[in-house]
Amino acid sequence: MKNQSYRNVNENPCNMCMPMGGILPFKGIERSMVIIHGSQGCSTYMRRHIAEHFNEPIDVASSSLNEKGTIYGGEKNLKQGLDNLIKLYNPGMIGILTTCLAETIGEDIDRIAAEYKAERGLDRLPLITVPTPGYGGAHSEGYWLAVKRIIASVAEKTRLHSRVNVIVPNISPADIREIKRILQLMKVDYTLCPDFSDTLDRPFVKPYVKIPEGGTRIEDIAAMPGAPVTIQMGVTVDEGMSPGKYLEEEFGVPLVNVPIPMGVRATDAFLDTLRHLTGRERPDILEAERGRLLDCMIDSHKYNFQGRSVIFGDPEIVYAVASTCMENGIYPVVAATGSKGAKFSEAIKKILAGCPDETDILNEADFTGIREKSRQRGANIAIGHSDGKFLTEREGIPLVRIGFPIHDRVGGQRLLSVGYTGTGMFLDRVTNTLLERKHSNYRAAMYEKYYTGTA
Amino acid sequence: MKAAEPAGIIVEERSDFIRTKGRQKQQLKCDADSIAGCVSQRACVYCGARVVLNPVTDAIHLVHGPIGCSSYTWDIRGSLSSSADLYRFSFSTDLKEHDVIFGGEKKLARAIDELVQKYPSKLVFVYSTCIVGVIGDDLEAVCKAAAQRHGIEVIPVQSSGFIGNKSAGYRAACDALLRLLRPPEGKGLAKTRSINYLGDFNLAGEVWIIKNYLKEMGVEVNVAFTGDSNYTSLKKAARASLNIVQCAGSMYYLAEKMEELYGIPHMNISFLGLEDTSASLRKIAAAFGDAAIMSKTEELIARETARVKDAIQWYRRKMEGKKAAIYVGGGFKAISLIKQFREIGIDVVMIGTQTGRQEEYDTITDLVDDGTVILDDANPSELEKFMTEKGAHLLVGGVKERPLAYKLGMAFIDHNHDRKHPLSGFVGAVNFAGEVYSTLCSPVWNYI
């Protein structure tokens, strides 16, 4: 296993920027809106990217900094922006995210936000500041930091209750719905944060409302310190950005970090955690789903064993997919993330113990690097987000889409990959991609190899 | 907790940017900074510059800045190439905190060195982003030194996001192009009887479609800006004897500069819709004042019109009386769309642009019916309000507007840069009508 070193130029990025990731958790909080403090383009690009993945309107405001604001400070712009945002949307919470520009010119958004609240007499409106300079990290880091800041700003010391905190990474709305279903089947009361299962995958209903219904309720977030435990799907998250760690250190809520429940082991681990908590065994319905997943794995094992996978994307997703691939013999030959992820490398090395092939683990990867390694190691299936399309186009490696963003196919928001059932669906997508590849070329390959002898 | 949302509200500062034809005398306000917090649909300076330059196929497109700017613009446009495909790569200096504190000049120089060695090219565009303008990197000096080191052209694009809106980015791109096409000292190019085609980015092969028409007429296209262009073809731009300008928003500045510097006259044309396509081809033919060209042009128009007439009529009968809303980037496209909708029997009830100019809004106002809402730099709330109030059946827009239309239960036309089918010329007019039909007359609307 090897790690990559410093470079001067990123060729075809495998990650997006920090404020982009910071928007997403706010979309999973009830009646919440975001304003990006920076120039107009940042919010527009991010809206476009998120809208294409979820096929949902993504309204995000900007303080629209111009030259004057950049030179003399953007306070006036930000305050005016907040005024207009409130007028237009009447939100229950506003996230204020910075950009490269705001951070570089030294904008003190904490002071501006506090002043604004006092000036306008808006004591009860949570304004959550998140410092997210684009050069500060990838979108994954922006996501976790925003979740942490939301919780840190709203959480209050509260009496103990029985609702478990469940903190999820940037997975699909369908995945969040599945996790909620499992929690309900296990009869666990919970506060899931951030919950964009409805807000970023909303049913078609009339009339249209600008802020979609759903999302984690602010009063539930406020009560998170009274939970018996925090279950956080964040084994790759740095402690400084870990919302669960924050709740543990500040309020003494025990933290259990688990991987995204994908694959047999990780789903078992998630359910074991719930079993320890409730004393309840897995209900029959989940037992049957587990059995079906095992059946699926056996049915497909020989096809899957042909797979040599290149996996890329958000650290948490790469970890979960790599783990699932290891269980099924789709051995990873490249595991890459655009994030820095010190914990990612450590965690993924453990998962890959026992992998018969050598695996390149790439931090802060770009797609030119991922392509080179995939070619060298003979990868034959790619698993990750849409930006991996060049692996197919240029290297002939088919891509199974998972993660964020998926902008060249529909249904990113509906992709189900977690739990026993979701894992089975994910595996079928992978296996069928391998089969399609085999069926489309084996006749010609055999003919050339054995009949003409030209291969 | 369930708080009411303000419905259909218009922020006061925005009221000058919205007009209803026939109701208000005062001219619409445009070409101004976006108002903070209004959720403008506009992009930034860098975006404008990148849109215009990215179709240059054999250039290294290097973004000097943090990763996001490069990430969000990587290969998201449908510009096609007949040869090189380096433009489909997105390079970034991926500035980190350390670089922001100590400056990014050295990293940029090393990045250019690495790229030029790995991807041999005669041309590098280095795009400036927001923080480059603030941390004070001397882009000009780094590019000049790199150009000398490698014996190629390394052109800085002054596209820091905060210096204006998308229009400022168009201008920055045009400035970069002007530097590229400047002939060496004392080596003026001999004029040829050919034209440059400005403001077509060869989405789904649109430049090729128009070039074929012009070729049949006997008119040679010298180079298109910038669809399917490359270093060599752009270098010869100054030898053309006429510039035709389609996307005027992005290119009128370049056209004016080329007239001033190289004496190349320019004329606005549009190949969107049958009416504009025919009129534009005639206008070009007339500019040559050549009887042979004019007669070939008439032949082409007659033949192509006859070929598509029945299809257009068929669509017209299916869609007559429907109402359209338009929200697009520039004024040129908006104007053409009004006429194009008219050809298929559809009235425009709301129309706006992100960066339209005053004279374009004047033309729009002349063209539309009384009662049509015209708006500049609109936001989702305004789009929702006016489309609903005016009873629009479909919206034409970009990626961000699409889900809004769908959530409102409205048909939608993708008139953006990542589309995969041509909307130019005679064939484009049929494609357009077909797309309108596919979204207006889909059975899915029966179920909502």
TrEMBL record, chain A:
PANTHER family registered for this protein in UniProt: LIGHT-INDEPENDENT PROTOCHLOROPHYLLIDE REDUCTASE SUBUNIT B
GO molecular function, one term: nitrogenase activity
Species the sequence originates in: Desulfocucumis palustris
Gene3D superfamilies, alphabetized: Nitrogenase molybdenum iron protein domain, Nitrogenase Molybdenum-iron Protein, subunit B, domain 4
Domain Nitrogenase/oxidoreductase component: 17-434
Coiled coil spans: none
Protein name in the entry: Nitrogenase FeMo-cofactor scaffold and assembly protein NifN
Stated family: Belongs to the NifD/NifK/NifE/NifN family.
PROSITE patterns recorded: NITROGENASE_1_1 (PS00699)
Record key words, sorted: Nitrogen fixation
From TrEMBL, chain B:
Gene3D superfamilies: Nitrogenase MoFe cofactor biosynthesis protein NifE, C-terminal, Nitrogenase molybdenum iron protein domain
GO biological process assignments: protein-containing complex assembly
GO molecular function terms listed in the Swiss-Prot or TrEMBL record: nitrogenase activity
InterPro entries registered for this protein in UniProt: Nase/OxRdtase_comp1, Nase_comp1_CS, NifE, NifE-like
Keyword terms: Nitrogen fixation
Domain spans labelled Nitrogenase/oxidoreductase component: 44-440
Pathway: Cofactor biosynthesis; Fe-Mo cofactor biosynthesis
NCBIfam families linked to this entry: nifE
Protein function: This protein may play a role in the biosynthesis of the prosthetic group of nitrogenase (FeMo cofactor).
Family the entry assigns: Belongs to the NifD/NifK/NifE/NifN family.
Protein name per UniProt: Nitrogenase iron-molybdenum cofactor biosynthesis protein NifE
